[in-house]
Design brief:
Blueprint: H1 5-10, H2 19-22, E1 28-35, H3 42-48, E2 56-62, E3 73-79, H4 86-100, E4 105-109, H5 114-118, E5 121-124, H6 126-130, E6 143-144, H7 151-164, E7 168-173, H8 175-190, E8 196-201, H9 219-240, E9 244-249, H10 256-265, E10 269-270, H11 273-278, H12 283-299, E11 305-310, H13 313-316, H14 318-333, H15 335-340, H16 344-354, H17 357-365, H18 368-375, H19 391-409, E12 418-423, H20 425-428, H21 434-452, E13 458-463, E14 473-478, E15 483-488, E16 491-496, H22 506-520, H23 536-539, H24 544-549
Parallel strand pairs: 3-4, 3-6, 3-7, 7-8, 8-13, 9-11, 9-12, 10-11
Antiparallel strand pairs: 1-2, 2-14, 4-5, 13-14, 15-16
Helix pairs in contact: 4-21, 9-10, 10-22, 12-19, 14-17, 16-17
Length: 551
């Protein structure tokens, strides 16, 4: 393998650990708290998780732990989309196992959860582990989005774990993946198996968090990668002084990425999906906000700017959400009739007769390329793949049209040239920041301690993350504690609740207090590239969001 200079040097980086994990492993004990409850639907969840519901919080303290030295065999799964630092979770788990007992083994389950179902594995050894330390990506063992949900899949998973002689399975994933981990832990116990299941909190979207999980890993690196790119574009905009840049950012269900990037770069316009939904803003009102900034800045001879747009914005605009829901129903129930229409224009005319009047009017008013995106590339459930809707282009086109009307009316005298961007995959596999490298390694090591101490149905947890790493607090959170029941695909199902942007929270309020100024006055900040070497205030800082939440 040919290596870059940075990759070669990053192999030598030694991740920092919380003080509780830095002592000899035989001196790491587990302190258990009081029984816990789920965040809601306690009765239903207690009935669903008879074996694992109500477990206590776990914290690591100094004390004797003879069990930690037993020989273990563990399987590890990377589940769902990539996030920077996943390899360091595996490294922390691997190093913990080997410190506990050099004879312990770690198996990588290949291609995500399907590796457990289909028994596709590789044993991880020192040479293999060492070429992935402190690197981005999930290419060490691959990932996948298979859900373990059918009786056959659960049975196959248990059979694989038994064949491999596993003591435990570690699932590294987001809310859905860790919901799967909870179900797997419950299934193993219900079948009389003592094979443990531990989760680790991963997602760049930042929506797997609560009072015990302060941040999901990968978020720190992703937002700093995007913020560098946004800052570069802002500098270019401020240099050329002739383009408005519309930048869509990852985050379908929550706008944490967009909010953090706004705090880091201070763009002219930034939409937060949760606020758009709360205020029931129409598509026209969203466009009006952009045009207001464009007109005011043009009056100051500044015909340029930057707009940040969360990926899932269209689903939070009431009339767009209604349109998408109606299209999903039509395409699910009348796909044959739709397919029998000839051209796109014939399909459009037919659809308008099937949609409600407001949705039909909206659909006809959309730019043709956006309308086509609403009809194509549907997921296996027949739903629109919102991430493929070019929301940035939709807003660019509507803004341009509105500005033409304002120019005719004499209320706008500037020029408008727009460019669109989507920053998504650029951030998912970046070299992890020092923060993510340290945090992920600590999560993996914590997972080892939870396993060695005999716990199952837990999510690895590291808290107090705004402090230096030696002051971090490591432990585990019962997976059922973070759950509620949600109606999905016609049935009530247990799921870990997504954390959305809190409009009463300090990060959003800090942004909201400044955005009117940013919309008119050029206030750009240029974060620059991620730094790995130098003073701690440059290299090891957590996100602005996390600092504000904990201040």
């Amino acid at each position: 393998m040919e290596l870059s200079a940075l990759q070669r040097v990053r192999y030598t980086y030694k991740p920092k650990l919380p003080g509780s994990l830095s002592r000899p492993v035989t001196d790491i004990a587990v302190q258990l708290g009081n029984p816990t409850e789920s965040i809601s639907d306690q009765g239903a969840l207690k009935a669903r998780f008879k074996e694992t519901y109500g477990k206590p919080l776990a914290t690591f303290i100094q004390g004797k732990n003879d069990a930690i030295s037993r020989k273990l065999s563990v399987g590890v799964i990377l589940s769902g989309g990539q996030a920077p630092g996943g390899h360091n979770v595996i490294a922390g788990l691997y190093d913990g196992l080997k410190k506990g007992n050099p004879g312990s083994k770690l198996f990588g389950l290949l291609g995500g959860p399907s590796g457990l179902i289909d028994n596709k594995t590789v044993e991880i050894n020192d040479p293999m582990m060492d070429i992935y330390r402190n690197t981005g990506g999930f290419d060490m063992i691959g990932s996948g989005r298979t859900k373990i949900e059918s009786p056959e899949q659960f049975a196959a998973s248990l059979e694989t774990a038994k064949k491999l002689g596993l003591n435990a399975v570690v699932i590294i994933g987001g809310d859905d993946s860790n919901t799967n981990a909870a179900l797997l832990a419950e299934y193993f116990l219900a079948k009389g198996s003592d094979i443990q299941v531990i989760g680790c909190p991963k997602t760049i979207d930042g929506d797997l968090k609560n009072e015990n999980i302060e941040i999901s890993f990968g978020f720190d690196t992703a937002v700093k990668t995007y913020s560098e790119l946004i800052g570069n574009i802002e500098r270019d905009a401020n240099s050329a002084k002739k383009y408005w840049h519309f930048i869509k950012l990852m985050g379908r269900s929550a706008s944490h990425i967009t909010l953090e990037c706004a705090l880091q770069t201070q763009p002219n316009i930034c939409f937060i999906s949760e606020e758009v939904e709360a205020k029931k803003l129409s598509l026209g009102q969203v466009v009006d906000q952009i045009c207001s900034s464009v007109v005011k800045r043009a009056d100051n001879k500044e015909n340029f700017g930057v707009v940040l747009i969360p990926e899932g914005l269209v689903e939070f605009i009431p009339e767009m959400k209604k349109l998408i829901e109606e299209l999903n129903d039509i395409m699910a129930n009348k796909e044959k009739e739709f397919s029998e229409q000839g051209s796109f224009h014939a399909q459009t005319d037919w659809l308008v007769t099937q949609l409600s009047d407001p949705s039909g009017y909206l659909f006809k008013s959309l730019p043709e390329e956006i309308a086509k995106e609403l009809l194509m590339d549907r997921d296996p459930h027949g739903n629109v793949q919102v991430s493929r809707i070019e929301t940035e282009k939709l807003l660019m086109g509507m803004t341009e049209s509105k500005l033409r009307d304002l120019k005719k009316a004499g209320t706008y005298k500037g020029t408008f040239s727009a460019l669109g961007h989507f920053f998504g995959y650029e951030g998912r596999c970046a070299f992890p920041t020092n923060f993510d490298a340290d945090y992920c390694y600590s999560l993996g090591f914590s997972a080892f301690v939870l396993i060695a101490s005999g716990l199952t149905g837990y999510l690895s947890s590291v808290k107090n993350l705004v402090a230096p790493a030696d002051q971090w607090i490591a432990g585990g959170v019962p997976l059922t504690m973070m759950m509620n029941m949600e109606h999905r695909h016609g049935a009530d199902k247990p799921v870990i609740r997504k954390a959305l942007v809190e409009l009463e929270g300090k990060p959003f309020k800090t942004f909201a207090a400044e955005r009117e100024t940013w919309s008119v006055k050029t206030s750009f900040i240029y974060p620059g590239s991620i730094q790995y070497y130098g003073p701690a205030e440059i290299c090891d800082q957590p996100t602005i969001t996390l600092k504000l939440e904990k201040s």
